[in-house]
Amino acid sequence: MTTAITPNAKHDQLPPLASRFVDVAALPWTKTAYPGIEAKTLLLDRHSGLLTVLMKMAPGTKLPDHEHVLIEQTWVLEGTLICGEGKVTPGNFVWRPAGSRHEAWAGPEGNLSVAMFQLPNKFFQADGRELDFLGRDWNEHWAGAAKAHALA
After folding, report:
1. DSSP per position, the chain
2. CA-CA distance, 27 to 95, in Å (whole number)?
């Protein structure tokens, strides 16, 4: 039995092993903890932490200091995604090793990308808190998934 879901999709009545077809246009954009950045969750497995999102960043918006707890993959569809190590342009792909930490921002045209996480990122706050993408306490929401990966 799968524990994966697509929030806001109509998959409740499907048999356990049926394919889940997702009408991405019908999914709502969810505001994140970072102004100008919204996401559509395409796949979420709270047990393992597996997460795939369609991410939209307004021009110049910034993802503050964060750690890629496990491997992250990003495929840029439109615009640019920039960090201190380089720039990802439309149609190109970047992946980041587990434990890497940086800031990232959208170029002047903004950004639309598909981001895939083995476990959601940790965002570090000045007061010492560690939050997830939605601004929730990372340990409270993801410690169980981290244990599934033997990280806790």
Report:
1. ---EE-TTSS-TTS-TTS-----GGGSPPEE-SSTTEEEEEEEEETTT--EEEEEEE-TT-EEEEEE-SS-EEEEEEEEEEEETTEEE-TT-EEEE-TT-EEEEEEEEEEEEEEEEESSPPEEEPTTS-EE-TTSSBHHHHHHHHHHHTT--
2. 25
Contact 121, 133 (CB under 8 A): yes
pTM over 0.85: yes
Mean pLDDT by 10 residues, the chain (152 residues): 81 86 95 96 94 97 95 98 97 97 97 96 95 94 89 64
Condensed to tens digits (0 to 9), the pLDDT of residues 99-142 reads 999 999 999 999 999 999 999 999 999 999 999 999 999 999 99
Domain boundaries in the chain?
Answer: 4-8+21-148
CATH of domain 4-8+21-148: 2.60.120.10
